[in-house]
Request: fold
Amino acid sequence: MKKLMILIALVGLTGMVNAQSEKKKNGLTTEQKADKMTAKMNKSLNLTEAQVLKVKEANLNFVKERENMQTENRQKGKQLKESHKTNLQSILTPEQFKIVSDKMDKREKKMKRKMKE
Reply:
């Protein structure tokens, strides 16, 4: 029973990490995020025009790479979750797996509902 609770907790943490990574920051586009970063840096650092252009390009590349990484992490998280579920199914009885699966689904729905708020 203790092991089952630990497994459920681990699955829950995986779901929370995925939910957090899917959250869009202020609904800004990639370019808008880079522009916002550049504007903050320009204000605090008094950049020259040449520096502004280079920093903007660097910020845009950074934001794009970060977004790509987040997408990859979401995909890996989904694959890990499915693999874990399959593994549990081979270990648990059908009744036990149904209970765990129902709890996982309920937790996932709750997280999606919180993300929409």
